[in-house]
Amino acid sequence: MRLLAAAPLALAGLGAGTIGYAAGVERNAFTLRRVEVPVLPPGTAPLRVLHVSDVHMLARQARKQAFVRSLADLAPDLVVTTGDNLAGPDGVAAILAALEPLRGVPGVFVLGSNDYYAPKPKNPFKYFWPRHKRVIGEPLPWRALVEGFEELGWYDLTNARRVLSVGSVEVELAGVDDPHLKRDRLAVADPPVDAALPLHVALVHAPEPRALDRFAASGFDLILCGHTHGGQLRVPGFGALVTNCGIDRARARGLSRYGRAWLHVSAGLGTSPYAPVRFACRPEASLLTLVPTR
Asked: Which of 39, 189, 201, 272 would bridge with 221, disulfide CB 3.0–4.6 Å?
């Protein structure tokens, strides 16, 4: 009987300990995911692509800023950011300062919903209901963010397409605005890729199948996304509970095949300030080493 009486207290203690770990330890345990992607023509020298997403920066987050600054030591050939850089108005100066060491490295970006609008408190269980109503916060200074990225020498791929020299490789790049906000203009994805170019890369913030399908059908080799936070709370042996978009749970984080394309979904470096927890899903940036196909 004493054991039965003690069980609720033990469960409560376990729950409190798990929340404390998720909020106080793991959400600040920044890590680098290293992935090799075989997408280049035979004989091509490897390319190093730094993929950063979902930083959700606030000015007070000094530890996160230091980690982002350290990423310049990786000496990437290309920097890609797939949105949700901000968690409040003061995040613009903070993230631009953190990314300053990467100035001059070729870079491209698209925006996410939390670049346009600040997060707001909401019931986290809504994520289990796929048609839950989106909660839109106050507008954020996204134009200042775009200008700052462009001053770093990076190109805005919001509903746009361009060719960029990366190392010795000419890369065809395309991107769409955030499908989560239905701002994507998918006609950008429709023209077939230029087969004369050796590499074709697409950027999308939220990995909604309607966008992924169009880019894959047009012949893009690699699609880079964020948004999911890798599920943010994962169950060991089961994986992500939710993705907050149309992608299946198995693709919530990391590299997978999507038709003939490779899909890489970053678990991101941050969280909403109203849900500052991560479990079995450390905050991450990714270094993708693109290598020749075998």
From this structure: 39
Q: Where in the chain are the domains?
A: 2-292
Helices vs strands, H then E, count in the chain: 6, 14
Cα torsion 230, 235, 237, 241: sign: negative
Q: Mind listing the pLDDT tens digit for each residue in 217-265?
A: 999 999 999 999 999 999 999 999 999 999 999 999 999 999 999 999 9
Instruction: Determine the length of the chain.
Output: 294
DSSP letter, residue 139: B
* pTM (2 d.p.): 0.91
Neighbour count for residue 33 (Cβ, 10 Å) = 18
Burial class (CB in 10 A: 0-12, 13-18, 19+), 212: buried
Q: How many CB atoms lie within 10 A of CB 102?
A: 22
Segment 14-57, tens digit of pLDDT: 444 677 788 889 999 999 999 999 999 999 999 999 999 999 99
Q: What is the CATH number of domain 2-292?
A: 3.60.21.10
Distance CA 85, CA 102 (A): 16
Radius of gyration of the chain (CA): 19
**CB contact at 8 A, 64 and 105:** no
SS3 annotation, 8-24: HHHHHHHHHHHHHHHHH
